[in-house]
Amino acid sequence: MAVVPKKKHSRARRNRRRAHWKITPPTLTECPRCHEMKRPHHVCISCGYYKGRKVANV
Fold first, then answer.
1. In which element (H, E) is residue 16 found?
2. CA-to-CA distance for 52 and 44, rounded, in angstroms?
3. What mean pLDDT comes out for the span 29-53?
C-alpha cells in the first residue's frame, strides 16, 4: 500500500521545492550566412541554411 503523509507540507516548503522551476530564455546564435539570430543546431528560418548547406526553401 502507498504511504500517506501524516502532516501537510507548508507553503514555504512547497515553494522551496519549486524554486528551480524558472523559465529560461532560448539560447540564440547568429547565422553565419545571413546574420539573423537562430537556435543552435537548427535550420535558419531566414535563409534556410544549416551547416553551410541549403536544406529548406525560404
1. helix 11-17
2. 11
3. 95
